[in-house]
Each structure stands twice: as structure tokens, then as C-alpha cells.
Specification:
16 strands, binds zinc ion, about 40% helix
Amino acid sequence: MAQAQDLRQAITSVAGRPGPVLSAYLSVNAEIPENQGRVYLVRLRDAMNDEGVPGELQQRVRTYAEDETHPGARTLAIFADGDDLFEIYRLQVDVPESFRWGDPYVAPLTLVLDEYEPYGAAVLDAERFRYFVVSPLSSAHGDEEMKASGFREVDVHPSEPYPRGGGSTDLDPAGRKHQANIHSFYKELGELTRDVTFREGVRRLILAGPKERTAEFRRTLPNELQDRVVAEEHVDLGSPEGELLDRLEAVRERAEHEREKELLDEIRESGVRGLDVTVAALQEENRVYHLAALWELEAEIRWCDNEQLAIREITSEVCPFCGQKTRVRPLKDVLVDLAAARGARLDFMLGENENTDTLRDEFGGVAGLTRF
Ligand SMILES: [Zn+2]
């Protein structure tokens, strides 16, 4: 899973910087009207001025962004300082735009990593087989082409051409022979699918095509792949590619929504909720292994840099444990740091939907799944 690893390394290396660091999440998604005519370059310039980024660094960042006439991403994540840090990541995800000059701000990268698991889509009909992957970081390798929604196609070549014939289910000898051909062909495709799925780090697999084809293909899939299938979608491969990819993206979003809902259901059964209880369970009891937090969370919390601990009494200007001065930080940043230190997964949920309603209204914005 090279891409997730890259992102994890970026989070660790950037988060460890003493600062001041420029952390910018710039929306460059060409489909968003506000970005037409590359107006985001103006927003970037204004924001860096507002934040007081040194002129020389501003110039470097602006030169880079201006040269990227087609960023091929939805969001550019930029990390730069006056020293040797200058890293830019192309994210295939819409992340709320933000700019900061000061402490490194990696919460959105964590959001991307956790919210956006790599998906694979095996698309097949009577004559074709295609495999698409979508992951949070765009990186089209070699000849691969980055398509809409960040999907890229991976070449999969069966050793034999697709079995032609009537597709009859008659039990006459020719029909049986044909069925046997299809079966062995699907079996090979299934093995190829397994190999590419494992190689690409795909944990969630979509099957798409005419219903009878995907159903048969699913039956012949190797066992270790069966439980990675999250959706079977009836699509016509004859439709334009853009349409096909839009369908796949819609299926992916639905599956993600379902995954979040299951997480919240589990938390309801055996978890903790609310800021105070959740932070205590995470930080002091070390029993939270999966956190859910509302993206729109604006809360702040005190923090002791000396011990890397949240201080739950917001008025404590001095740390009750070590006596050093504390400071106030955005809760989202603190959750990222604590989750990283305690090895918990962190799902930020954004948008207006059933899941964010539950998280906000029922769980108080932050909740966690507990080990015991
Ligand atoms: Zn302390």
C-alpha cells in the first residue's frame, strides 16, 4: 500500500516540525465554480499575506502553484518552511480549504488517509474486463492515465481471449463446453483480480457490469477476495467512460457512507461519546482504537507540550502534572496528535447527512470505539 505509506510518512515528518510551517490546503478542483479561471491562485496569495508568511517563501509557493496549470487533483496540500521543507501532495479528495503559518497542520491529511481507503473496481461484461483503482493520493505511474474522480486504470491481461459464443445455458455439448470455457476464464480473471487487488492495497472491491456476469464472476472469485467485495453494481459498459466512472464514484461514496454508519452503530453498542469521556478513554485509559469526530468541530482544548497531553480543564494555564505553561489548541489538531500517539484510527466525518447528524446530536461531536 505504497500510497497510504507515503501519506503516513508525510504526516509524521511534517507534524514533527518545530515550525513556523506553512500548511495550506488549496482547493483546485476544476469542477467547483469558485475555481474557474484559477481564482484559487488569488486566494492562496491573499491567505499567505493574511497569515504573515515571509515574502520569499510566498514567492516560492506561488511560482510552484502558478506553474501547475492542470493540477490533476481536487486539493493541493502544501507544506513549506524557511528551511528545507517544501512538499506538495495532490489529493483526490475535497478538503475544506485552510491556510496556516505556525504549527504544522496535518489534521486534513489524516482525514484523507482514514476516510478514503483505496477502492478497486472490477468492471466486466461479455467482451471486456477492466480494473480501476482509486486512492487518496493521485499518482499515475508510467503510462497509466489519471481519469475522472481520481480513478486510474490498471492493465490486466488474461492469457486467453474472452470466450466467444452464444452464451447459451443449454445443456447440449456445445453449450456445456461454452459454459466450461466461461467458468475457467472467470477463474483466471478472479486470480488476476486477486493479484492486482493485493498489489494495489485495495481493501474494498466493487464489481460492476451486467448483473448475470458480476454474479457469476463473484462466485468464481478466490475465497480471500470474497469478503472484500462491498458492492455489486449493474452497469452497461457501453456507456461513455465518464459516465461509468461517475457511477463507480457514486457506488464508492455509498459504500463509504455505509462503513461510517457501521462504525457509529458499533460505537453505540460498545463505545464512548462526548469530548470529556472520549479524551479520557483515549489519553488516560488508552482503550480507544477508532475515533469518529465531526469535521465541523470548532472546539478548542488546552495542551501541555511538555507531556503531549490534553488538559481537560480549559482554565488551567499551568499543567497540573508538570507545572509548565499550557496553551489552547484546536481540538481537531489535538485529536490527530493523540490518535497518532495511541495508535487509534481517526475518521473525520463531514457534510450534512445521517452520519454527521448522529455524531453531532447523539454523540456530542466526538466518539470512540473501545477495546474494553
Ligand atoms: Zn505537563
